[in-house]
Amino acid sequence: MRLGRILRFDDVRGYGFIVQEGDGDDVFVHANELCDDKSLFAPGTPVEFEVTESSRGLKAFAVHVSNKEPAGEPAAAREVDKDVVPGVPPLDDGMCDVLSASEFRQEFTELMLEAGPELTAAQIVRLRTEILAVAKKHGWVEG
What we know:
The chain is of the alpha+beta class. The chain has two domains: 2-77, CATH 2.40.50.140; 101-137. 25% of the residues lie in helices and 26% in strands. The protein has helices at residues 74-77, 101-115, 121-137, and strands spanning 2-10, 15-20, 27-30, 46-54, 57-65. It has a five-stranded antiparallel sheet with strand order 3-2-1-4-5, with no helix packed on it. A hairpin with a 2-residue loop joins strand 4 (46-54) and strand 5 (57-65). It is elongated. 17% of the residues are buried.
């Protein structure tokens, strides 16, 4: 069993990341691999787990809350923040730009063309329409 700490865990999406003891890579963990009550897995919680290599990188399984403290406090060395998304830089002031619906459609379309070139135009339009409705509901887009 390896030791580490929960770096972040998103209850809604059902996944998160574990910081391994020492200098190891962060390990992906899915909610189905948590062997204890899911509410116990908060950022900074010490855990014991097994690791397997998946096509997308390291993946934890058989994850248990641990009473052992990982050596070197790896979670303290990296800021533990449940709201951090890997690969997305944090906002400086916690605020975001509010776009017009037109600006949002343009940015979203460009993102989908770059990130998912296999998507059809109909799929992009359907996704864009649904996400724009959610964005308007939450006040992320004007109008």
